[in-house]
Specification:
- The complex is a heterodimer of chains A (446) and B (374).
- Chain A has 446 residues and is mainly α.
- Chain A has eleven helices and three strands.
- Chain A is elongated and about 120 Å long.
- Chain B is elongated and about 115 Å long.
- In chain B, strands 1-2-3 form a three-stranded antiparallel beta sheet.
- Chain B has eight helices and three strands, in the order E-E-E-H-H-H-H-H-H-H-H.
- Classes of the chains: A mainly alpha (446), B mainly alpha (374).
- The interface between A and B is large, with 84 and 98 residues.
- Chain A: It comes from Cyprinus carpio.
- Chain A: Pfam families: PX, Vps5.
- Chain A: One of its GO terms (biological process) is protein transport.
- Chain A: It is a peripheral membrane protein.
Chain lengths: 446, 374
C-alpha cells in the first residue's frame, strides 16, 4: 500500500512543519493602547475627601492645633482664547473659624494667583525660618496644550493633576498655624478679585538646586561647634538631604509602576477584544457565551487597572513629588538660619575689629577719634546682641518647624497608605464579584 | 484486514500519566514519567528525553494495518525546547510561546503530559504498541532518524495544495475547514495577547518588588520622628510587597490554566489544519488513482479486475470519510471539554487569589488604622 505510506509520510512532514513554526508574527504591536481617560474629578477629590474626612476628624481630636477649615479646589474652567487663555479654578472654603467673614465662601483663582500667594508668604516668613509650602510647578508644555485647545486625554489629565496639586498646596498652607494667621492667606481665600500677580517666578527645579548647594556650603563654613544644638542641625540637614535622595529614587519607581499599570490596562483591553472575537466565531453555544462573558469580565478588569493606575499615581507619585519639593523648602530654612548665623558672625568680627581699632587709638594716644571708636563699638555691640538673638530665634523656629514637618510627614504618608489599601481592597472585592459571576458560565459549558 | 493480536489495549491508565520531574543536563532535558498500571496498584516510572517523544509521534503515524489512520486527528506534540544558556527568553518565547514561561519548565512539562494523556485516551491510538513501550519500558526506545529526506519535497507539494482551493469531497468538510481556519487564526491571536498580559503582570510584580525594597532605604533611627516615619515606610513596604506577590500569583494563574489552555487550543487548531490537508491529499490521490486505472479500462479482458479495484478504492475512501467525520465530532467535544476545564480551573484560581489578597489587604488596613491611632 504505497499510497498510504506516501500520505502518512506527507502527514509527518507537514505536522513537523506547522507545529514547529514559531509565533513569528509577534512583531510589535498592532495592539492599540487606549489612552488613559482622565480620572473623573470625583475620583481624586472625593476619595481624598470621603475616607480622609473621618481620618481628619480623628486627627483633630488628637492634635493641639484644633482648627476647623476645609478647602477644596474644583471646576477648572478655561477662560479666554488662544495664547492668552488661562484656567480658572473654584476655591471653596468651609470653616467655623471666627477670623473669616462667613462660614462658607467661594472665589475664583487662576494659577498665577497661587504663585503670587507663595511669593508673598515666602518673602515674609522664609527669613524667619518658616517652612513655606512650595506651589505646584509651572508647566509650559502642559499649559500650551490647554491654551491651544487640544481636547485630548493627556491635557485633561494635566488639568486634573494641577487641580489636585493646587488643592493639596492650599491645604498645607492653612494647616500651618502661623501661616494661617497671615492676612494674605485670608485675602486669597475670601476676596472676590485679587490684583493680578506679576513676576511669579515659581521655583523651578534649578532654583531648588541652588538652594540645595547653598545650604550644604553654609554647613561646611560653620567651623566652630557652639553647642549641642548645632550638632542637631548638622545631623538634621544631612538627614533631609538623604531623605530627598531617597524620595527621588522612590518617585522614579512609582512612575515606573504607574506606567506598567497603564500598559497592563492596554494589554487587557486588547486581550478582551481577541476573546470576544473568538467567542463570536465559536460554534458551540455555551462555549461561545462563556467566551463572550469572559471578554466582558476582562473589559471590567481593564477598567479596574486604569483606576488603580490613577490611584497609584495620585496616592504616591504626587505625594513623593510634593515631598521632594517640601524638602527643598526645608533646606531653605536651614539656609536662612545659616544666613542669620553668618550675619551674627560678621557682626562679631566687625566688633572685634572696632575694639582692636580702639585699642590702637588708645595706644597711639589719639583722643579725638576715640569717641567715634567708642560709638562704633556700642553700635556693633548692639548689632551683635540683636543678631545673636535673631539667630537664636530663627534656630528655635527652624527646630520647631522641622519637628512639626516630620510629624505631618508621617501623618500624610500614613493617611495615603490607608487610602491606598482601601482602594486595593475595593479592587479585590470587585474582582471577587466578577469571578464569582463568571464561574457558573464556565461550568455551564457542555 | 484483521486487527492483529499485537494491538492490545494500553496497560496503564490514561488519566494517571504524569510528568513528575524534569532535570537539565547541559542542553538535554530528561523527563520522569509516572503512570498507574491497570488492574494493579503498581506504579511505573520511566525516564525519557524529547527525542523519545518524537519517536513515539513518528511511530503513531507509521502504524501499519490500521485502517482509516488518515482520518485520525493526531494530538499535537509541543516543539522541542532548547534550554541552553545562549537561549534568551525572547528566543524561547518565539519558539515555544506560553510554554517557555513558568519556572523550571513547569508549563512545558504540563503540555507534554497532556500530549501523552490525549494519545492514551484516543480510542484508536491507545492501542499502539509504541505507546505502551514508551510508558513502561525502562530502556528508552531507539531513536529513528533520517527519514526527513523525502519530506521536504512532499511538504512543498502540501504547501501548494493549501494555497489552491480544492473542492472538498463533501460540504461538511468544506465548512469544517473554513471554521477551522478562522478559529486557528483567532485562538493564536488570543494566545499572543494573553501572553502580553502575563508579561506585563510580571513586569508589574518586579516593579513592586523594587519599590518595596527601596522603601527600606528610608529607615533612619536618629530620633523619635525618624523612627515613626521609618515605621510608616516599612509598613508601606509590606503593603507593596503584598501587591508584588498578588501580581505574581495572578500571572502564574493565568499561565498555568488559561495560558496553557489557549496555547493547546491554538496548537490543536493547527493540527486540524494539517489533518484537513492530508485528508484532501488522500482523497485527491484516490481520485487520481481511479482515473488512472480508468484509462486502462480499454483492455476489456481486465474489466472485472478494474471494477474490483475501483470498488476497493471506493470502500477505502468511504472508510476514511466516516472515520474523519467521527474524528471531527470527537475533536470538537474533546476540545470544548478541555477549554471548559481550563476556564473553570482558571476562574477558580483567580477567585481564590482575589479572596486571599482581599483578606491580606484587609489585615494590613486594620493594622494601619491601629498604628494610626497610636
Amino acid at each position: 500500500m504505497l499510497l498510504m505510506e506516501c500520505v502518512l509520510h506527507l502527514y509527518v512532514s507537514t505536522v513537523e512543519l506547522s507545529l514547529d513554526s514559531p509565533l513569528n508574527d509577534r512583531k510589535k504591536k498592532d495592539a492599540v493602547k487606549p489612552s488613559l481617560s482622565a480620572p473623573a474629578a470625583s475620583v481624586a477629590s472625593s476619595s481624598s475627601k470621603a475616607p480622609s474626612k473621618t481620618l481628619e476628624e480623628l486627627e483633630e481630636e488628637e492634635s493641639e492645633d484644633k482648627f476647623d477649615l476645609n478647602i477644596s479646589v474644583t471646576n477648572p474652567e478655561k477662560v479666554g482664547d488662544g495664547m492668552n487663555a488661562y484656567m480658572a479654578y473654584k476655591v471653596s472654603t468651609q470653616t467655623s473659624l471666627t477670623m473669616f467673614r462667613s462660614k462658607t465662601f467661594t472665589v475664583r483663582r487662576r494659577f498665577s494667583d497661587f504663585l503670587g500667594l507663595y511669593e508673598k508668604l515666602s518673602e515674609k516668613h522664609s527669613q524667619n525660618g518658616y517652612i513655606v509650602p512650595p506651589p505646584p510647578e509651572k508647566s509650559i508644555l502642559g499649559m500650551t496644550k490647554v491654551k491651544v485647545g487640544k481636547e485630548d486625554p493627556s491635557s485633561a489629565e494635566f488639568v486634573e493633576r494641577r487641580r489636585a496639586a493646587l488643592e493639596r498646596y492650599l491645604q498645607r498652607v492653612v494647616s500651618h498655624p502661623s501661616l494661617l494667621q497671615d492676612p494674605d492667606v485670608r485675602e486669597f481665600l475670601e476676596k472676590e478679585e485679587l490684583p493680578r500677580a506679576v513676576s511669579t517666578q515659581a521655583l523651578s527645579g534649578a532654583g531648588f538646586l541652588k538652594m540645595l548647594n547653598k545650604a550644604t556650603d553654609a554647613v561646611s563654613k560653620m567651623t566652630i561647634k557652639m553647642n549641642e544644638q548645632d550638632v542637631w542641625f548638622d545631623e538634621k540637614i544631612q538627614d533631609v538631604e538623604n531623605e530627598e535622595q531617597h524620595m527621588r529614587k522612590l518617585h522614579v519607581m512609582v512612575e515606573s509602576l504607574v506606567n506598567h499599570r497603564k500598559e497592563l490596562s492596554g494589554n487587557t483591553a486588547v486581550f478582551a477584544k481577541s476573546v470576544a472575537m473568538l467567542g463570536s466565531s465559536e460554534d458551540n453555544t455555551a462555549l461561545s457565551r462563556a467566551l463572550s462573558q469572559l471578554a466582558e469580565v476582562e473589559d471590567r478588569i481593564e477598567q479596574l487597572h486604569q483606576e488603580q493606575a490613577s490611584n497609584d499615581f495620585f496616592t504616591f507619585s504626587e505625594l513623593l513629588a510634593d515631598y521632594i519639593r517640601l524638602l527643598g523648602a526645608v533646606k531653605g530654612c536651614f539656609d536662612q538660619r545659616m544666613k542669620a548665623w553668618q550675619r551674627w558672625q560678621d557682626a562679631e568680627n566687625m566688633l572685634q575689629k572696632k575694639r582692636e581699632a580702639e585699642a590702637k587709638l588708645l595706644w597711639a594716644n589719639k583722643p579725638d577719634k576715640l569717641q567715634q571708636a567708642k560709638d562704633e563699638i556700642a553700635e556693633w555691640e548692639a548689632k551683635v546682641t540683636q543678631y545673636e538673638r535673631e539667630f537664636e530665634r530663627i534656630s528655635a523656629t527652624v527646630r520647631k518647624e522641622v519637628i512639626r514637618f516630620d510629624k505631618e510627614k508621617a501623618r500624610d504618608f500614613k493617611r495615603q497608605i490607608v487610602k491606598y489599601l482601601e482602594s486595593l481592597l475595593n479592587s479585590q472585592q470587585q474582582l471577587i464579584k466578577y469571578w464569582e459571576a463568571f464561574l457558573p458560565e464556565a461550568k455551564a459549558i457542555a | 484486514m484483521e486487527v492483529s493480536s499485537a494491538e492490545a489495549a494500553l496497560s496503564v491508565s490514561a488519566s494517571s500519566i504524569r510528568i513528575t520531574d524534569v532535570t537539565q543536563d547541559g542542553d538535554v532535558l530528561t523527563f520522569a514519567i509516572a503512570s498507574q498500571k491497570l488492574n494493579s496498584s503498581a506504579g511505573v516510572c520511566v525516564f525519557r528525553i524529547y527525542e523519545d517523544f518524537d519517536w513515539l509521534q513518528q511511530s503513531l503515524f507509521s502504524q501499519e494495518n490500521l485502517p482509516g489512520l488518515q482520518g485520525i486527528i493526531f494530538p499535537p506534540l509541543p516543539s522541542k525546547a532548547l534550554p541552553s544558556q545562549s537561549n534568551t527568553q525572547t528566543k524561547a518565547l518565539k519558539q515555544l510561546g506560553f510554554l517557555a514561561l513558568g519556572q523550571d519548565w513547569q508549563s512545558y512539562c504540563k503540555a507534554l503530559e497532556f500530549y501523552l494523556q490525549q494519545v492514551a485516551a484516543h480510542p484508536t491510538l491507545c492501542k499502539c504498541k509504541a505507546l505502551d513501550s514508551f510508558l513502561i519500558n525502562s530502556e528508552s526506545p531507539g531513536k529513528q532518524r533520517g527519514r526527513k529526506g523525502i519530506f521536504n519535497r512532499l511538504s512543498q507539494a502540501v504547501e501548494e495544495m493549501r494555497k489552491e482551493s480544492h473542492k472538498d469531497v463533501d460540504n461538511f468538510f468544506q465548512n469544517e475547514r473554513n471554521k477551522n481556519t478562522n478559529l486557528a487564526a483567532l485562538s493564536k491571536v488570543a494566545t499572543e495577547k494573553l501572553l502580553d498580559v502575563v508579561m506585563t503582570e510580571q513586569k508589574l510584580a518586579l516593579a513592586c518588588g523594587h519599590f518595596a525594597t527601596s522603601l527600606h532605604l528610608c529607615v533612619n533611627q536618629d530620633d523619635a520622628a525618624a523612627v515613626a516615619f521609618s515605621k510608616v515606610c516599612l509598613k508601606l513596604s509590606d503593603v507593596i510587597e503584598a501587591v508584588n506577590r498578588n501580581f505574581e500569583k495572578v500571572a502564574s494563574n493565568d499561565l498555568s490554566t488559561l495560558g496553557l489552555g489557549l496555547d493547546l487550543e491554538s496548537r490543536y487548531q493547527e493540527a486540524e489544519k494539517v489533518w484537513e490537508c492530508v485528508l484532501m491529499i488522500a482523497c485527491k490521490l484516490i481520485e487520481l488513482e481511479t482515473v488512472k486505472k480508468g484509462t486502462e479500462k480499454a483492455k476489456a479482458s481486465k474489466r472485472e479486475v478494474m471494477e474490483a479495484f475501483q470498488k476497493a478504492v471506493e470502500k477505502e475512501f468511504n472508510l476514511i470519510s466516516s472515520v474523519a467525520k467521527q474524528e471531527i465530532e470527537r475533536f470538537h467535544s474533546s476540545r470544548v471539554n478541555v477549554l471548559k476545564n481550563f476556564l473553570i480551573g482558571w476562574c477558580e484560581l483567580q477567585l481564590n487569589t482575589a479572596k486571599e489578597f482581599a483578606e491580606l489587604y484587609s489585615q494590613h488596613l486594620e493594622a494601619c488604622r491601629n498604628m494610626y491611632s497610636e
